Structures are given as C-alpha cells and as structure tokens.
C-alpha cells in the first residue's frame, strides 16, 4: 500500500515530491521532439520524408493517420494530440523552441511550492530521517487511525500511552512519551516552542547562522525519526526506550553527521551550542 501517490512522488522536491522522474511523462516529452520538428517545419531529411509519405500537405496539428500507418508513426501522432494544447497556445514558441525538459515540465502541470522543503531536504539530514520526515510532514505515516480506515486493524489505541487513538499529532507530539522527548530536546537546543508547532516554527525560523539552522533542522527530524522508531519497538517488541536514550541517539546522529559532511572542526567551536558535552 503506497503511502504517497506516485504523481506526488514524481514532483520536484521543492513542490513536495521526491524528484523521481515520471518515466511515462518523460518518454512523452522525448517523443515531443518529433512533434516539434513537424510543427516548426524543421529542415530535416526525416521531416521531408514524413511529409511526402504521410502528411502530404495536410495541417499537422489536425492531421489523422491512416489506419495502416506504421506503429511508430501512430505513437508520434498520439504524442502530438497529448501535447497539442501546448503547441496551439504557443507555449514553446515563447520559449524559443521545444526542449525535452520544458515538455516534461508542461506535462507535470501546475505545481505549488511547499514551505517545508528546506527543513526536509537540509543537506545535513540523514537520508532516512529526511525520507521519514517527508512522509510525516504530509501526515502519511501508517498510524493506527489510518490503518483503521483501511480496515487493516480493529484496535486504534496508542501502544505507547494506552490512552488515546494513535494519530500523527498524537504519536509524534502529544503523547506523554513524545512530549518528554521534545521537552529534553528543546532544553538542550535552548528553544521554547509548543511541541505541536515545532515543525511550523522551524519552517518559519530565521537565523543569522546557517550552521545553527542546519543543526536545529537535523535535530528536529532526528527526533521525529527516533520517536517513530520507538513507537514501532513498543508495538512490535513490547519495549520502549527512555526519553534520555532517545535524546542521546539524536545527539550522536547530529555529531556524526555534522563531522562527516559540513561542520568538521567548526562543529565543536560553536560558542552558542550546548553540545560541548554532546553525549
């Protein structure tokens, strides 16, 4: 069962996706090159041959192939119909010609930029933290309230606190265990923000130091990851780490990631940071 629709996955990261190429649309965009040559009447031997054998002086945009036309020619014709609106609107004339990239972008349609992209795709985040955070920020984790809707389970009670129905907001922020974990992290980072609004706060947060922002972003996503991991341990193995252990794991993740990628020796020299004794 996919957590996020494939169309969403194939959007650029700045539009809320993973930036994975949609192969069918990319193939159409590639075929669009042939359509563009015919629309622009390019001086090409293949174009002259096609005009002589198939089109025979007809208008290309309104042309319909003969039933006995070759398979490859009919594929190009179908591609023309799918891109026709763009050609008729002068989309590529205004851009000084058609390109595969512009055709693919047109096929993707209108996309809206998301404000949480810098938080998720901060280059210092561990990839597994970023991926889980990407799912969580869209509220697509397989929490029990969603599993109930899909009729996969019959009990929606939170396995951690045994007091509420498990939902994104509840398990990641409002659960007693989660609240304790966030409280310790915020004390360590020296920030003051309600747990329920920490993602929104981090998205809007402005800081003079890029390094400081990267550390805070990395810590927040690491905490989301470890809280979710603790929830799974509780559900599957019937054991729950202490909040102190969760915070220690977050600190280790930050230190190792920072030293390996960006901060190096500057990491331990930051005057504002509380992690001179990080573990």
Write the layout of secondary structure elements.
Layout: H1 6-9, H2 23-39, H3 45-55, H4 71-88, H5 100-108, H6 117-120, H7 127-137, H8 144-149, H9 168-174, H10 176-189, H11 198-204, H12 210-237, H13 243-261
Characterise this structure.
The chain is mostly helical and 279 residues long. The protein folds into two domains: 6-108, no CATH class; 117-277, no CATH class. It contains 13 helices and no strands. It has helices spanning 6-9, 23-39, 45-55, 71-88, 100-108, 117-120, 127-137, 144-149, 168-174, 176-189, 198-204, 210-237, 243-261. α2 (23-39) crosses α5 (100-108), α9 (168-174) crosses α10 (176-189) and α12 (210-237) crosses α13 (243-261). The protein is elongated and about 75 Å long. The two termini are 39 Å apart.
Q: Specify the structural class.
A: mainly alpha
How much beta, percentage-wise? under 5%
Biggest beta sheet attributes: none
End-to-end CA span:
39 Å
Overall form: elongated
Order of helices and strands: HHHHHHHHHHHHH
Show unreliable segments.
275-279
Q: What level of helicity do the residues show? A: 55-70%
Q: Over all CA atoms, what is the radius of gyration?
A: 26 Å
- Arithmetic mean pLDDT: 86
Number of helical segments?
13
What is the β-strand count?
0
Total domains:
2
